[in-house]
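Proteins fold reproducibly. Look at a sample protein:
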Amino acid sequence: MKPTELIKMARIATYDTALGQQTWEDKQYLAALNDGRAFLYTRYPEARVTAVVGLTAYDEIEEKNIAATMTEDDVYRAFFIAYMVWGFFTAGSRDTANRQKAQDWQQNYLRALTAAGGG
């Protein structure tokens, strides 16, 4: 899976897709993705073991590598998308509707982690 693919899916979930009217740039979604990866690696160290690479360490994805393939297994796809969407709505959390959406997406990313872990 590639960051560009995950960002595209997160944009669809946030309705942030209209060209010229997007409220977040790719680099903002990428920052949220990197935060999600750091969250995953620190709280769920088993995520560091991948089918392709073996044991990996956290390294931030830079903007120049946004189209490169990530080392994490595809099982975390739903988590990464939900985490970026949560970050998007958290950024506008002063708005009551966005605050509620952020809480809902936080539950979504936690559920996605539970599903990925087989729990």
The radius of gyration is 14 Å.
